[in-house]
Amino acid sequence: MKISTTRAAKQTKKISKLFKRIFILLFWLLIWELCSLFINNTILFPSPFGVFKALLVLMGKIYFWQSVGKSIFRVIVGIILSIVIGIILGIISGINNFMEELMNPLIVTIKSTPVISVIIIVLVWVNSSNVAILTNVLMCFPIIYTNVLQGIKNVNSDLIEMAHIYKVKRSYILKDIYLPSIKPYVISGILMCLGIGWKICVASEVLSTPRYSIGLNLLNAKSILETEELFAWTIIVVLLSFIFETIFKYYIKNKTER
Questions:
Q1: Which residue has the higher pLDDT, 126 or 17?
Q2: Taking the model in full, what pTM does it have?
Q3: Which of 35, 38, 204, 225 has a C-alpha 20 to 30 A away from that of 249?
Q4: Are 35 and 58 contained in the same domain?
């Protein structure tokens, strides 16, 4: 009986949370509609209905799905490479002080360089379809690297010293001490990259204009003053970023519970 009551309470809480989110969404849609009515110019600020209508029209076209698919591919590849490079270099730098000092100028330089400058430089190096991937790696890997390095630095030094005293193999120290310790830092870094990655990818696509990309469609919509379509593509970017973060959080939550 007690378990049944607890389940009912959880279900009620979930429903309440859902209604709360729907109310918040409707509230901001109303604000959007009121702003649109006040400005009274669809070129400057279209209505929600006009934008969603444009979105439905776009979704019926093949190039929409080709563009979205290609952009998703670029973001995924860029973030995966950032995670791999950031973790490897972060662990090495965390264990080796010289490597940390060697990497420090590079990390500081990348963090200080404006994204637009990085995109323009990368445009010189690679073809348009790979600009977004390389820019994503250059801007996101320092985030993973810094988080991993911080995680390594926060590992209990007494635990490492004891492992050395008992002559534990380095592979076991890495697998059983360092990796579990940096896990929360890596998760935090990935969540940051999932949000930033989409912004960097779309900005890179706007400048590099690969054939199928969300960025190119944003640029085209702006060029012909199709503001409703411009808003529609922007909503797609926001939704994709939100979906990526939600899926990752759900995966981590399930893994933690298991």
A1: 126
A2: 0.85
A3: 204
A4: no
